[in-house]
Amino acid sequence: MAQAFGWNWGENLKPKDAARFSLVYTVFVFLASLLMVFGIDPLQLTLFSMAITAVILPPVIIPFLILMNDELYVGKYRNGWISNGVVIFTMALTFVLAIVAIPLEIIGG
């Protein structure tokens, strides 16, 4: 958040020099601890988040593939056949991951 909003942030800054960053960081650490208080396993939550990411990835890649080949937007820097091949291979791999991820998460526990 600090980078997105242009706030001062960093390990070497004192909390008073990066007050907004320190506040947000403290709030997120507190909220993360609440998850454990309510019995949510952080490892299971991480694994579930990764499975959801695998499901969301294919629809996100398709618009980028279209934009990376549009001469109106990128001009002479559009993708060549090698770049398109790599992106299509990645899309195929992510489609397989998307189909397999959630059932494996449920079956694997």
Any overview of this molecule?
The chain is flat, with a radius of gyration of 20 Å. The chain has helices at 2-5, 19-37, 42-68, 71-74, 81-108. The longest helix has 28 residues, at 81-108. α3 runs antiparallel to α5 (81-108). The chain is built from 5 helices and no strands. It is mostly helical and 109 residues long. Helix content is 75%, strand content 0%.
Summarize it:
With 109 residues, this protein is mainly alpha-helical. It has five helices and no strands.
Q: What's the SSE blueprint?
A:
Blueprint: H1 2-5, H2 19-37, H3 42-68, H4 71-74, H5 81-108
Helix pairs in contact: 3-5
Beta-strand segment tally: 0
Mean pLDDT: 87
Coarse structural class: mainly alpha
Low-confidence spans: none
Q: Helix count, per DSSP? A: 5
SSE sequence, one letter per element: HHHHH
Proportion in helices: over 70%
Ends distance: 33 Å
Summary keywords:
about 0% strand, about 110 residues
